[in-house]
């Protein structure tokens, strides 16, 4: 799977959060060591942007359109980015517990070393997305579209895939425990060890009784 990476300029202008909030845009700029907890941010457009050590806990993006965007060591816990669009984006070592990406388009996006437990991807459109060394416990992909998505060395526990539409979803090398919606994972790729551990759950969802 080939993913297009964010294209950031060599030099980024340091932007003050007030300027960004006033103009509702960030172009070829960076935001560092800023606390935007519980802020309501409407119609924010990012084109070539870097967030580093930015706290966005509980923030609400009424509409976010981000292209060529990188976030490092930032906190998006319980923030809302529903109905947004992310294209060529990377989240690295970010805390994202309970983040809401429902009905959001994510194309060419990488999550690396992120805590995404209880995140909401319901009805989201994910294409060419990779999760690397992430926690995805109780993460909800209900009715999401998952095309060319890989989850590498991730922890998936009670992760929800009910009614998801999968095409080339690669789960190999990840820990799979109590997955909800095995029947919706048609088209997914798992390894032989994962198949052994998944057997009881697959049998349960298919109504197969196993008796010795």
Explain what this protein looks like in three dimensions.
This protein has a ten-stranded parallel β-sheet with strand order 1-2-4-6-7-8-9-10-12-14. Strands 3-5 form a two-stranded parallel ribbon. The mean pLDDT is 91. 10% of the residues lie in helices and 40% in strands. It is mainly beta and 212 residues long.
Q: Main sheet, how many strands, which sense, barrel?
A: 10 strands, parallel
Task: Please give the alpha-carbon distance between the first and last residues.
Answer: 42 Å
What is the rounded Rg? Answer: 18 Å
Chain-averaged pLDDT: 91
Order of helices and strands: EHEEEEEEEEEEEEEH
What is the 3D shape? elongated
Biggest sheet strand order reads: 1-2-4-6-7-8-9-10-12-14
Low-confidence stretches: none
Beta strand %:
35-45%
Output the keywords.
212 residues; mainly beta; two-stranded parallel sheet; 40% strand
Fold blueprint:
Layout: E1 13-14, H1 17-23, E2 25-35, E3 40-41, E4 44-55, E5 60-61, E6 64-72, E7 85-92, E8 105-112, E9 125-132, E10 145-152, E11 155-157, E12 165-170, E13 175-177, E14 188-189, H2 192-205
Parallel strand pairs: 1-2, 2-4, 3-5, 4-6, 6-7, 7-8, 8-9, 9-10, 10-12, 11-13, 12-14
Describe the structure concisely for a colleague.
With 212 residues, this protein is mainly beta. It contains two helices and 14 strands, in the order βαβββββββββββββα.
């Amino acid at each position: 799977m080939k993913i297009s990476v964010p294209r950031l300029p060599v030099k980024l202008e340091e932007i003050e959060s007030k300027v960004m909030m006033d103009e509702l845009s960030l172009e070829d700029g960076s935001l560092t060591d800023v606390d935007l907890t519980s802020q309501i941010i409407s119609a924010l457009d990012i084109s070539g942007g870097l967030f580093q050590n930015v706290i966005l806990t509980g923030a609400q993006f009424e509409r976010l359109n981000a292209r060529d965007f990188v976030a490092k060591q930032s906190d998006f816990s319980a923030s809302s980015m529903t109905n947004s669009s992310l294209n060529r984006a990377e989240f690295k070592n970010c805390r994202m517990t309970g983040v809401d990406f429902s009905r959001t388009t994510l194309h060419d996006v990488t999550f690396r070393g992120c805590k995404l437990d209880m995140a909401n991807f319901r009805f989201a459109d994910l294409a060419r997305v990779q999760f690397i060394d992430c926690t995805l416990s109780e993460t909800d992909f209900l009715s999401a579209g998952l095309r060319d998505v890989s989850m590498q060395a991730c922890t998936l526990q009670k992760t929800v895939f009910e009614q998801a539409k999968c095409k080339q979803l690669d789960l190999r090398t990840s820990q799979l425990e109590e997955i909800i919606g095995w029947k919706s994972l048609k088209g997914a790729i798992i390894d032989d060890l994962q198949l052994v551990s998944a057997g009881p759950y697959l049998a349960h969802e298919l109504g197969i009784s196993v008796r010795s």
